[in-house]
UniProtKB/TrEMBL annotation:
<protein>
    <submittedName>
        <fullName>HYPK protein</fullName>
    </submittedName>
</protein>
<feature type="compositionally biased region" description="Basic and acidic residues">
    <location>
        <begin position="71"/>
        <end position="83"/>
    </location>
</feature>
<feature type="compositionally biased region" description="Basic and acidic residues">
    <location>
        <begin position="32"/>
        <end position="58"/>
    </location>
</feature>
<dbReference type="GO" id="GO:0050821">
    <property type="term" value="P:protein stabilization"/>
</dbReference>
<dbReference type="InterPro" id="IPR052617">
    <property type="entry name" value="Huntingtin-int_K"/>
</dbReference>
<dbReference type="InterPro" id="IPR044034">
    <property type="entry name" value="NAC-like_UBA"/>
</dbReference>
<feature type="region of interest" description="Disordered">
    <location>
        <begin position="1"/>
        <end position="83"/>
    </location>
</feature>
<feature type="compositionally biased region" description="Gly residues">
    <location>
        <begin position="20"/>
        <end position="30"/>
    </location>
</feature>
<feature type="domain" description="Nascent polypeptide-associated complex subunit alpha-like UBA">
    <location>
        <begin position="91"/>
        <end position="131"/>
    </location>
</feature>
<dbReference type="InterPro" id="IPR038922">
    <property type="entry name" value="HYPK_UBA"/>
</dbReference>
<dbReference type="Pfam" id="PF19026">
    <property type="entry name" value="UBA_HYPK"/>
</dbReference>
<dbReference type="GO" id="GO:0043066">
    <property type="term" value="P:negative regulation of apoptotic process"/>
</dbReference>
Amino acid sequence: GGGMAAEGDVELELETEPNGSGGGGDGAGGRAAEKPRKHDSGAADLERVTDYAEEKEIQSSNLETAMSVIGDRRSREQKAKQEREKELAKVTIKKEDLELIMTEMEISRAAAERSLREHMGNVVEALITLTN
């Protein structure tokens, strides 16, 4: 079982190391043992860093694509909204209808006006929708 002993040794070293540096007194012995392992982990870290960087690049390009897609969709929605607002603005509504809805539903003038316009100025339909 030579292999087992070697493994045990490594584990022992790992355990004593933090105590050695923590004590601060005898640094020399601990440091010598540290060196070879530091090199190994350094190489591994470097690999990890490059993997990470590549992943990040992929993610950011995906993000850019997603953002432009979202942007397109947003501007389309914005256009549709503007068209709708234009249509709604054309609808003629009566001031008394507006005030009725505001009083009945206790909502702001803007909200009352909007629901009236959405129902083509039909105060009854607007009220029905608001009560639902």
